[in-house]
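User: VOC family protein. Structure?
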Amino acid sequence: MSTFLNPYLNFRAQAREAMTFYQSVLGGELQVMTFADQGGMGVPESEAGLVMHSALTVSDSVLLMGADVPSHVDTGGDIANGSISLSGDDEATLSAWFTGLAEGGQVTAPLEKAPWGDSFGMLTDRYGVDWMVNISGS
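Assistant: Predicted structure:
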């Protein structure tokens, strides 16, 4: 029996663009369903083409999901997504993901050797999502 943690990101009319960007960086297969695909789901006609649900399957252990929050849903201000952490010992893949996610965003801590022996970096991508990358040391 397996258990997975799958981050689910929320956007305001940027989910398709953001998830397509994540696919360009992380690879994998992206599936997108709009509100219109599900009969409108009570959103205004102008928002029917927004993403009701999307899933980016990168591997058996990496699944990123996202959706647009309709305008009538009160989020109490900005949409806060927290941080997504990527970790492991595949230095080439994790370094490439860090570099790709940083394009158009802001690196808040460069990916470099950390005091605990791993390589670690943080960034905020172009959609305002915070990412942490930890590459296990030898």
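The chain is about 15% helix and 35% strand. The mean pLDDT is 89.
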